[in-house]
Design brief:
This is HNH nuclease domain-containing protein. The chain has seven helices and nine strands, in the order E-H-E-H-E-H-E-E-H-E-E-E-E-H-H-H. By secondary structure, the chain is α+β, with helices and mostly antiparallel strands. Strand 4 and strand 5 form a beta hairpin. The termini are far apart.
Length: 307
């Protein structure tokens, strides 16, 4: 019986994002912190409009559309709670989110659009969303094995990882750990690959749909990868042999990364190469110097020329 094994993580050498700089973004010298003087109202508006523009005023899980002001049909949900300033600061200090990120309340990369039902499920720790770099996708995990959520388990949610306001992945990981704690008797389940989206838009007339988002995913992995399910978060092959297409079935198995310090560190370094990290860094920069000074500041922090 043949088994196909692959990892849910990708080697740093295979990533096609910006190269990691020697000076990590979370440990910048004094004077580089986010210092923009923006009113509370402006910050709140930026949070709302940033999420709405990214998520197209839809629940990222089921696709429900929101009307004016979104509520009560679709709501803007914080991943890390809006009152958790201490935790947010800890994530910045450990390099899990950029030091340039806005406050926990106002950072649009700390929020997603959810319908009222899935907002309650998310805040109630019935499911979590995991970023899987080998699939370049955010995956819905019904860890509580709730019956009404099972239809979404192991499917990709409508979040574009290349969007400048794509959610930071670390807040999702914190929410995942809380979900695991709420359901200590539940375990990780294997997920058949390739993955399909949680919903497909059938309203093509409005011009604002995300039809089939995340459906056609290239796993970008081969046989013989990282072994085994568990703490390392591997993907194991089927025990039932080849599929009907004649190709060995592959399964995604997500483990607890906090049980594997090396894996967690690898994930942290990968996060710092994602487009949303660069965008948050650029947004937090001040451009009060000369053109030459500003260009140098950009290259030093982001790693590429702005031209």
């Amino acid at each position: 019986m043949q088994h196909t094994v692959m990892s849910d993580q990708v080697p740093l050498s295979s990533l096609r994002f910006l190269p990691l700089q020697a000076r990590e973004f979370h440990s910048l010298p004094a004077g580089f912190e986010y210092q923009h003087e923006i009113s509370e109202g402006s910050n709140t508006t930026a949070f709302d409009t940033g999420i709405d523009a990214r998520d197209l005023r839809r629940c990222v899980v089921c696709g429900m559309k929101g009307g004016g002001g979104l509520r009560p049909g679709v709501q803007r949900a914080h991943i890390i709670g809006r009152t958790e300033d201490i935790l947010w600061g800890l994530l910045k200090g450990r390099g899990f989110v950029p030091s340039f990120a806005k406050s926990v309340v106002h950072e649009p990369r700390n929020g997603i659009n959810l319908c009222s039902v899935h907002h309650v499920d998310f805040d109630g720790y019935r499911f979590f969303i995991r970023w899987v770099p080998s699939l370049s996708a955010f995956v819905f995990i019904n860890f509580s094995q709730n019956g009404s959520l099972e239809q979404f388990h192991g499917k990709t949610v409508a979040l574009d990882p290349n969007h400048s306001h794509s959610p930071f992945t670390a807040p999702f990981l914190i929410q995942e750990m809380r979900t695991r704690g709420f359901h200590p008797w539940c375990t990780d389940r294997s997920i058949p690959c390739p993955l399909s989206p949680t919903y497909t838009d059938v309203d093509n007339g409005g011009g604002d749909g995300v039809a089939g988002f995340g459906g056609a995913i290239d796993t970008g992995v081969e046989s013989g990868g990282m072994a085994g399910p568990g703490g390392s978060g591997g993907v194991a092959g089927s025990s039932s042999g080849p599929s009907s297409t004649g190709v060995n079935q592959q399964y995604l198995v997500l483990g607890n990364p906090f049980q594997d310090p090396e894996l967690l560190e690898s994930m942290r370094r990968q996060w710092q190469q994602l487009p949303n990290w660069k965008s948050a860094t650029v947004e937090g920069l001040t451009w009060e110097g000369t053109a030459e000074e500003n260009a140098k500041q950009y290259v030093d922090l982001v790693g590429v020329s702005p031209h």
